[in-house]
Every structure is written in C-alpha cells, then in structure tokens.
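Limitations

Structures in this collection are predictions, not experimental determinations, and the ligand pose is part of the prediction. Treat each record accordingly. The example that follows, with 2'-deoxy-thymidine-beta-L-rhamnose as the small molecule, is included so readers can see exactly what is and is not provided: the inputs are given verbatim, and the output is the predicted complex.
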Amino acid sequence: MTKVLRWDIFCTVIDNFGDVGVSWRLARQLVREHRQMVRLWIDDLDCFKLMAPAVNPELPCQVIQEVQICRWSGNQNDADAFAAVEPAQVIIEAFACTLPENYVISLSRMARQPVWIDLEYLSAESWVAHYHALPSPHPRSALIKTCYFPGFVAGTGGLLREKDLQGKRLAFDQRVELDFLRHQGIFERKPNQIRISLFCYESAPIESLIEVLSHSAYPVLLIVPSGRVAEKIAFLLGSVCDGERFVVESGTLTIQIIPFLEQDNYDRLLWSCDINFARGEDSFARAQWAGKPFIWNIYPQSDGAHWNKLEAFLDLYVESMPVSTAKTVIELWRAWNGGIPLDSATWVNFLDLQKSLAQHNESWIAQLLQRQDLTSGLVQFVENQL
Ligand code: TRH
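Predicted complex:
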C-alpha cells in the first residue's frame, strides 16, 4: 500500500501552456491513481482555466478533481507570502520555477527532511539518463533537491501516462468519436477528407503549410485551437478571426478554428484526427500516445539548443523505420521547424506513409509502455527516500 503523503506542486506559467499542462496532469494522477494529497500552486489561473474550465480565477484556493488549487504570485521574493504556509512532505518544483523564499525557510526548519524534486523538461538527449535523479545540495541549508528528468529510455523518469490511457484510446470507436465531435462542434469528415489537428508556434512555416494543403490532392480539414496561430492563419487568408469559432477555406483546405479544449478533450481530438501537429512537451507526448502520424514543432530556443533535442528524439523514433520512411519523416520535421523549406513533395511523401507510420507508432507505444510512467516512478522514488 502506498503511503498517503502531502505534495506541493509549484508551477509558473511562462508564456505557454506546457508547464501548467504537465503540473495539472501530474497532480490529477497522483490523486486518482496513488491517493496522494496534492496542493497545486499556480501563478496564472486564467491560463489554467483554458484547459480546466472548472477553475475560478477569482478564488485564492479551490478544490478541483480532488486537487487543491492555490494561487501564488510566482515571485520567490514575495516577503509576506508563504510565511504561514506549512510545507508538504513532498515538493515538486516544476521546471525550475524557484520556490518562494519563505517556503524554503520553512522547509529547512522541518523536523524531517522533505523530498524536494525539481521536475525538469522532457528530452531524448543521451545525457538525460546520466543526470536523472541526481541529488543537488541547497547552497544555504542542509536541504537536498533532486533533479528528475522525464524521458523515453531506461534510466530516465519516463513519460506521464495515466493507467487507463491506452484502454480509453482503444475504446474511442467511431460512435464515441462522433459523439465527441458533435459535442465539441467539430466538423465530421467529408468523403476522402483528412482531418488534421494543428497546434504549433507562430514561428513554424504556417504560410507554406497552408499553401501546400490548399492544393492537396486529398481535401484537408484542419482543426486549429483559437489563439495567435489561428489569428495568423486567418490573416494570411485575408480574413479576421473574430471569435473562438471560425471557419475559413482555401482551395481544397477547410480550416476550422475551435475554442481551446479541456485537457482530456485534447486527447480525444488527437485520437480522432488522422494526423496531428503537436508542439512543446506535453502535446508532443500526447500525440505519441495517440498513435496517429504526428509532426513535432519543438519549442524554439534562442541559442538553437532545440535542434539537438529534435535530432535526439528523431534518432530514437526513426531507429527501426525503413531508411526511406525515416528520411521522409526527418525531412518533414526539419522543414516544420524551419530548418529546410517546406514544399509539397515533402508533405505528399509523408501522406503516403500514413498507414505505415500508424503501424510504426503502435510499436513505438509498445516500446514506451515498457517503461514505468513518470508519476508511478516519482511515487516510488519518494517512498524510497522517506
Ligand atoms: O504550450 P506549450 O508550447 O508549452 C511549452 C512547452 O512545455 C515547452 O517545453 C516549455 O518550455 C514552454 O511551454 C515554456 O506546449 P505543450 O507542452 O504541448 O503544452 C500544451 C498544453 O495544453 C498541454 O497540456 C495540452 C494542453 N492543451 C489543451 O488542454 N487543450 C487544447 O486545446 C490544446 C491545443 C492544448
């Protein structure tokens, strides 16, 4: 029996949804599958509300899906804050967000050392396994922080994966899919039409993609969440995106802009599409679990470090593919991240591989399933520490 512990997860929203997306997923899984008591500290409840509509951004504290959600300023030097907060036994500092100073002082006064974990970004680079779970002593106290790295291979922290995820995906048959689409107001496929989800950064070569898809031999229905990319697409096509729902057409391409979905519904969208464009960290991982052919738009870093991350993942992912298939995937992914031009031939080659990529993805999923999921691994790690 897993011991019930109190967990504090700290998260700050930088400029995107990944940090809060991962923290929310982790918090829910800790509660649901491991019966842990979780408090989730978030600095931007408006952003969080987009993926968890039950959130009331006005409330300093609220309980949603058995997770206690608390607002914090995100500023570690906030002198008044956290002086009266009793720390939990396990602390997750998501993506090195830096804990409030007062909270760290309280941690250092605890009779029993808490387990303090810095949950790091996901990467397929080989150094990850060497640095995963290494302790790092705090400079001004006896506290120890452990850097915990998610990853794809043995020796890393694995990926977030709920116990019933694959079961739910496989049970998502045509009837359930239709119910989901109708409920979300998403168009059904017309005959021969391919449904594609698009979640990417503004820096991706969106204009080239729209151009290619507009002249595609297969008509495409492109589903895009509302936001800056949707606005850019509307602008490129001479329209104005004046709401959360919008439809614009270009040649054989129909683009449907939809409201940002609740996090679990985003999974359903990925399951219901024929191809998924994902980005960042969490949607990228979810696109892998969805099994459909996917293209990754990696979070661009100013020093170009993201290219190593992209190539490291590609090395693993295409390893067992036939050479020509691997070449096509690599070309499209590099093009989608701005490394080479995105042209029609690259896209058509990828489309021709839809079936074999879906098959490959099932083997990829089987390979990932051999690893322990990130949350279970964390729970076990914490138990071993106490
Ligand atoms: O939003 P992101 O670009 O987040 C990024 C990455 O995490 C990156 O590593 C980090 O450095 C940077 O932020 C600061 O992409 P990501 O990681 O895919 O997170 C998106 C989250 O939003 C994910 O949890 C899925 C969720 N989502 C929904 O809940 N509904 C939706 O409709 C969509 C499109 C996404």
